[in-house]
Structure of Universal stress protein:
Amino acid sequence: MAARDVDPYVTVVGIDGSASALDAVRWATIDAELHNSDLVIMSSVKNPTDVRDVGVPESYYDDLYTDTARALAEARSVAERTVGVRSAISIQTEPAEVGAIPSLLEWSKSARVIVLGCRGLGALGRGMLGSVSSSVAMHAHCPVAVIRTYTELSSRFTPAKSVVVGTDGSPGAADAVLAAFEEASLRDAAVTVVHAWADGDLSVGPPSRSAGWSRGKAGAEAFLDEVLFGPTASYPQVSVRRVVVRDRPAAALLDHGQAAQLIVVGSHGRGGFGGMLLGSVSRTVLHAAPCPVMVYRTPQGAAEHLVDTRKEART
Protein backbone atom coordinates (compact mmCIF):
# COMPACT_ATOMS: atom_id res chain seq x y z
CA MET A 1 0.00 0.00 0.00
CA ALA A 2 1.41 3.41 -0.91
CA ALA A 3 1.16 6.23 1.60
CA ARG A 4 -0.84 8.39 -0.79
CA ASP A 5 -3.59 5.74 -0.98
CA VAL A 6 -4.57 5.93 2.71
CA ASP A 7 -6.63 8.25 4.87
CA PRO A 8 -4.25 11.07 5.82
CA TYR A 9 -5.28 10.90 9.47
CA VAL A 10 -3.08 7.89 10.23
CA THR A 11 -0.30 7.15 12.70
CA VAL A 12 2.68 5.39 11.12
CA VAL A 13 5.27 3.58 13.21
CA GLY A 14 8.44 2.22 11.65
CA ILE A 15 9.98 -0.96 13.05
CA ASP A 16 13.07 -3.10 12.46
CA GLY A 17 12.68 -5.91 14.98
CA SER A 18 14.58 -4.12 17.76
CA ALA A 19 13.36 -3.69 21.34
CA SER A 20 13.40 0.08 20.81
CA ALA A 21 11.03 -0.32 17.86
CA LEU A 22 8.57 -2.29 20.00
CA ASP A 23 8.62 0.54 22.56
CA ALA A 24 7.72 2.85 19.68
CA VAL A 25 4.82 0.55 18.73
CA ARG A 26 3.42 0.69 22.27
CA TRP A 27 3.67 4.47 22.39
CA ALA A 28 2.26 4.88 18.87
CA THR A 29 -0.70 2.64 19.66
CA ILE A 30 -1.74 4.70 22.69
CA ASP A 31 -1.11 7.90 20.76
CA ALA A 32 -3.29 6.65 17.89
CA GLU A 33 -6.08 5.87 20.35
CA LEU A 34 -5.83 9.31 21.91
CA HIS A 35 -6.15 10.92 18.48
CA ASN A 36 -8.73 8.43 17.17
CA SER A 37 -6.28 7.63 14.39
CA ASP A 38 -5.71 4.34 12.59
CA LEU A 39 -2.29 2.72 13.01
CA VAL A 40 0.06 1.49 10.29
CA ILE A 41 3.11 -0.55 11.29
CA MET A 42 5.75 -0.36 8.56
CA SER A 43 8.98 -2.30 8.07
CA SER A 44 11.39 -2.21 5.16
CA VAL A 45 12.74 -5.06 3.04
CA LYS A 46 15.78 -3.86 1.14
CA ASN A 47 15.87 -4.08 -2.64
CA PRO A 48 17.66 -7.33 -3.61
CA THR A 49 19.52 -5.88 -6.60
CA ASP A 50 22.63 -4.92 -4.65
CA VAL A 51 23.03 -8.35 -3.05
CA ARG A 52 22.43 -10.27 -6.27
CA ASP A 53 25.17 -8.31 -7.99
CA VAL A 54 27.74 -9.56 -5.49
CA GLY A 55 26.71 -13.18 -5.72
CA VAL A 56 24.53 -13.47 -2.63
CA PRO A 57 22.06 -16.36 -3.07
CA GLU A 58 18.34 -15.81 -3.52
CA SER A 59 17.74 -17.50 -0.18
CA TYR A 60 19.29 -14.48 1.53
CA TYR A 61 16.51 -12.24 0.27
CA ASP A 62 13.93 -14.89 1.13
CA ASP A 63 15.25 -14.77 4.69
CA LEU A 64 14.86 -10.96 4.70
CA TYR A 65 11.19 -11.33 3.76
CA THR A 66 10.73 -13.95 6.47
CA ASP A 67 12.43 -11.79 9.09
CA THR A 68 10.36 -8.75 8.10
CA ALA A 69 7.11 -10.71 8.25
CA ARG A 70 8.07 -12.06 11.66
CA ALA A 71 8.92 -8.57 12.95
CA LEU A 72 5.63 -7.15 11.64
CA ALA A 73 3.65 -9.99 13.23
CA GLU A 74 5.35 -9.44 16.58
CA ALA A 75 4.74 -5.68 16.39
CA ARG A 76 1.07 -6.19 15.52
CA SER A 77 0.71 -8.53 18.48
CA VAL A 78 2.25 -5.87 20.76
CA ALA A 79 -0.13 -3.25 19.38
CA GLU A 80 -3.15 -5.48 19.83
CA ARG A 81 -2.19 -6.14 23.45
CA THR A 82 -1.73 -2.39 24.01
CA VAL A 83 -5.05 -1.10 22.67
CA GLY A 84 -7.94 -0.55 25.04
CA VAL A 85 -10.77 -3.09 25.12
CA ARG A 86 -13.15 -0.58 23.51
CA SER A 87 -10.69 0.71 20.93
CA ALA A 88 -12.09 1.26 17.45
CA ILE A 89 -8.79 1.98 15.69
CA SER A 90 -7.62 -0.33 12.92
CA ILE A 91 -4.12 -1.80 12.91
CA GLN A 92 -2.40 -2.57 9.61
CA THR A 93 1.05 -3.94 8.80
CA GLU A 94 2.90 -2.90 5.66
CA PRO A 95 6.20 -4.28 4.31
CA ALA A 96 8.08 -1.89 2.03
CA GLU A 97 10.48 -3.04 -0.69
CA VAL A 98 12.59 0.10 -0.59
CA GLY A 99 14.79 1.44 2.18
CA ALA A 100 13.33 2.49 5.52
CA ILE A 101 14.20 6.18 5.14
CA PRO A 102 12.64 6.78 1.69
CA SER A 103 9.61 4.69 2.69
CA LEU A 104 9.00 6.66 5.87
CA LEU A 105 9.56 9.99 4.12
CA GLU A 106 6.94 9.02 1.54
CA TRP A 107 4.51 8.11 4.32
CA SER A 108 5.24 11.46 5.98
CA LYS A 109 3.63 13.28 3.07
CA SER A 110 0.21 12.12 4.21
CA ALA A 111 0.56 10.79 7.77
CA ARG A 112 -0.50 12.55 10.95
CA VAL A 113 2.74 11.55 12.65
CA ILE A 114 5.68 9.18 12.14
CA VAL A 115 6.78 7.30 15.28
CA LEU A 116 10.21 5.68 15.61
CA GLY A 117 12.41 4.12 18.26
CA CYS A 118 15.48 6.06 19.25
CA ARG A 119 17.88 3.42 17.96
CA GLY A 120 17.58 0.38 15.74
CA LEU A 121 19.39 -2.90 15.38
CA GLY A 122 22.48 -1.14 14.06
CA ALA A 123 22.84 1.35 16.93
CA LEU A 124 25.55 0.83 19.55
CA GLY A 125 25.16 2.33 22.99
CA ARG A 126 22.15 3.66 24.83
CA GLY A 127 22.83 7.31 24.04
CA MET A 128 23.03 6.91 20.28
CA LEU A 129 20.19 8.06 18.05
CA GLY A 130 19.68 5.66 15.16
CA SER A 131 20.42 6.86 11.63
CA VAL A 132 16.85 6.21 10.44
CA SER A 133 15.31 8.19 13.32
CA SER A 134 17.75 11.04 12.85
CA SER A 135 17.28 11.25 9.06
CA VAL A 136 13.48 11.02 9.17
CA ALA A 137 13.28 13.66 11.92
CA MET A 138 15.33 16.01 9.74
CA HIS A 139 13.53 15.49 6.44
CA ALA A 140 9.93 14.46 7.20
CA HIS A 141 6.90 16.43 6.02
CA CYS A 142 4.89 15.78 9.20
CA PRO A 143 5.58 15.55 12.94
CA VAL A 144 8.05 12.86 14.00
CA ALA A 145 8.00 11.30 17.48
CA VAL A 146 11.16 9.54 18.64
CA ILE A 147 10.61 7.24 21.59
CA ARG A 148 13.67 6.96 23.79
CA THR A 149 11.98 5.25 26.72
CA TYR A 150 8.55 3.77 27.29
CA THR A 151 7.20 2.65 30.65
CA GLU A 152 3.87 0.87 30.64
CA LEU A 153 2.03 2.45 33.55
CA SER A 154 -1.12 1.16 35.20
CA SER A 155 -2.93 4.21 33.82
CA ARG A 156 -2.98 4.99 30.10
CA PHE A 157 -2.82 8.68 31.00
CA THR A 158 0.00 10.17 33.05
CA PRO A 159 -1.32 13.51 34.34
CA ALA A 160 1.48 13.71 36.90
CA LYS A 161 3.96 14.19 34.05
CA SER A 162 3.70 17.32 31.96
CA VAL A 163 4.17 17.97 28.26
CA VAL A 164 7.20 20.26 27.84
CA VAL A 165 7.51 22.62 24.89
CA GLY A 166 10.05 25.24 23.91
CA THR A 167 9.19 28.51 22.21
CA ASP A 168 11.37 31.24 20.73
CA GLY A 169 8.91 33.31 18.71
CA SER A 170 9.47 31.56 15.38
CA PRO A 171 6.44 30.33 13.38
CA GLY A 172 7.50 26.72 13.86
CA ALA A 173 7.72 27.16 17.61
CA ALA A 174 4.24 28.71 17.71
CA ASP A 175 2.85 25.62 15.96
CA ALA A 176 4.74 23.40 18.41
CA VAL A 177 3.19 25.21 21.39
CA LEU A 178 -0.32 24.67 20.04
CA ALA A 179 0.49 21.01 19.37
CA ALA A 180 1.81 20.63 22.94
CA PHE A 181 -1.46 21.98 24.33
CA GLU A 182 -3.42 19.50 22.23
CA GLU A 183 -1.25 16.60 23.40
CA ALA A 184 -1.59 17.70 27.02
CA SER A 185 -5.35 18.05 26.65
CA LEU A 186 -5.67 14.50 25.32
CA ARG A 187 -3.44 13.15 28.09
CA ASP A 188 -5.10 15.16 30.89
CA ALA A 189 -1.70 16.68 31.64
CA ALA A 190 -0.21 20.12 32.24
CA VAL A 191 2.06 22.02 29.86
CA THR A 192 5.46 23.43 30.79
CA VAL A 193 6.41 26.19 28.36
CA VAL A 194 10.12 27.02 28.25
CA HIS A 195 11.41 30.28 26.75
CA ALA A 196 15.07 31.31 26.69
CA TRP A 197 16.00 34.99 26.44
CA ALA A 198 19.12 34.05 24.44
CA ASP A 199 20.06 30.93 22.49
CA GLY A 200 23.73 30.81 23.45
CA ASP A 201 25.69 30.36 26.69
CA LEU A 202 25.98 33.85 28.15
CA SER A 203 28.25 32.73 30.97
CA VAL A 204 31.23 33.26 28.67
CA GLY A 205 30.25 36.84 27.82
CA PRO A 206 31.15 40.11 29.57
CA PRO A 207 29.57 40.82 32.99
CA SER A 208 27.45 43.63 31.52
CA ARG A 209 25.20 41.00 29.92
CA SER A 210 23.77 40.17 33.34
CA ALA A 211 22.21 43.61 33.44
CA GLY A 212 20.70 42.92 30.03
CA TRP A 213 19.07 39.80 31.44
CA SER A 214 17.57 41.78 34.31
CA ARG A 215 15.97 44.16 31.86
CA GLY A 216 15.05 41.43 29.40
CA LYS A 217 13.24 39.12 31.78
CA ALA A 218 10.18 41.35 31.94
CA GLY A 219 10.11 41.45 28.15
CA ALA A 220 10.40 37.66 28.02
CA GLU A 221 7.46 37.28 30.37
CA ALA A 222 5.42 39.64 28.20
CA PHE A 223 6.42 37.62 25.17
CA LEU A 224 5.07 34.47 26.80
CA ASP A 225 1.80 36.25 27.54
CA GLU A 226 1.43 36.88 23.82
CA VAL A 227 2.51 33.37 22.77
CA LEU A 228 0.12 31.68 25.20
CA PHE A 229 -2.93 33.83 24.56
CA GLY A 230 -4.29 31.66 21.73
CA PRO A 231 -3.45 28.19 23.11
CA THR A 232 -4.81 28.94 26.59
CA ALA A 233 -8.04 30.24 25.05
CA SER A 234 -8.38 27.10 22.91
CA TYR A 235 -7.50 24.72 25.78
CA PRO A 236 -8.69 26.43 28.99
CA GLN A 237 -8.68 23.12 30.88
CA VAL A 238 -4.90 22.70 30.47
CA SER A 239 -2.84 24.12 33.31
CA VAL A 240 0.36 25.93 32.33
CA ARG A 241 3.73 26.35 33.96
CA ARG A 242 5.80 29.16 32.49
CA VAL A 243 9.60 28.95 32.56
CA VAL A 244 11.84 31.82 31.45
CA VAL A 245 15.59 31.18 31.45
CA ARG A 246 18.50 33.41 30.61
CA ASP A 247 20.18 31.23 28.00
CA ARG A 248 20.82 27.66 26.72
CA PRO A 249 17.28 26.63 25.78
CA ALA A 250 18.28 23.03 25.03
CA ALA A 251 19.66 22.60 28.54
CA ALA A 252 16.45 23.99 30.04
CA LEU A 253 14.27 21.69 27.93
CA LEU A 254 16.35 18.64 28.86
CA ASP A 255 16.22 19.61 32.53
CA HIS A 256 12.43 19.90 32.57
CA GLY A 257 12.19 16.78 30.41
CA GLN A 258 13.44 14.69 33.33
CA ALA A 259 9.92 14.71 34.77
CA ALA A 260 8.00 14.96 31.48
CA GLN A 261 6.06 12.45 29.41
CA LEU A 262 6.79 14.27 26.15
CA ILE A 263 8.94 17.12 24.85
CA VAL A 264 7.67 19.02 21.80
CA VAL A 265 10.08 21.11 19.71
CA GLY A 266 9.74 22.94 16.42
CA SER A 267 11.73 21.79 13.42
CA HIS A 268 13.84 24.95 13.48
CA GLY A 269 13.80 28.14 15.47
CA ARG A 270 14.66 31.81 15.23
CA GLY A 271 18.18 31.01 14.06
CA GLY A 272 16.90 28.93 11.17
CA PHE A 273 16.31 29.73 7.52
CA GLY A 274 14.20 28.29 4.72
CA GLY A 275 16.51 25.44 3.78
CA MET A 276 17.37 24.41 7.32
CA LEU A 277 16.18 20.90 8.13
CA LEU A 278 16.47 20.80 11.92
CA GLY A 279 17.55 23.55 14.31
CA SER A 280 20.41 23.13 16.77
CA VAL A 281 18.14 23.13 19.84
CA SER A 282 15.85 20.51 18.32
CA ARG A 283 18.84 18.34 17.34
CA THR A 284 20.32 18.53 20.84
CA VAL A 285 17.03 17.65 22.52
CA LEU A 286 16.35 14.84 20.06
CA HIS A 287 19.72 13.24 20.77
CA ALA A 288 19.74 13.64 24.56
CA ALA A 289 16.15 13.76 25.87
CA PRO A 290 15.21 11.42 28.73
CA CYS A 291 11.65 11.00 27.40
CA PRO A 292 9.83 10.82 24.04
CA VAL A 293 10.39 13.83 21.76
CA MET A 294 8.10 15.14 19.05
CA VAL A 295 9.66 17.27 16.33
CA TYR A 296 6.61 19.18 15.18
CA ARG A 297 5.86 20.20 11.62
CA THR A 298 2.34 20.95 10.38
CA PRO A 299 1.35 17.83 8.39
CA GLN A 300 1.40 18.91 4.75
CA GLY A 301 -0.96 16.29 3.41
CA ALA A 302 -3.47 16.33 6.23
CA ALA A 303 -3.95 19.92 7.41
CA GLU A 304 -7.61 20.33 6.46
CA HIS A 305 -8.48 16.83 7.62
CA LEU A 306 -6.78 17.47 10.95
CA VAL A 307 -8.80 20.62 11.55
CA ASP A 308 -12.09 18.88 10.77
CA THR A 309 -11.25 15.83 12.93
CA ARG A 310 -10.15 17.92 15.90
CA LYS A 311 -13.39 19.88 15.77
CA GLU A 312 -15.40 16.66 15.73
CA ALA A 313 -13.41 15.24 18.65
CA ARG A 314 -14.21 18.24 20.85
CA THR A 315 -17.97 18.26 20.11
User: Anything to note?
Assistant: The beta strands are 10-15, 38-44, 91-96, 113-117, 144-147, 162-166, 191-196, 240-245, 260-266, 293-296.
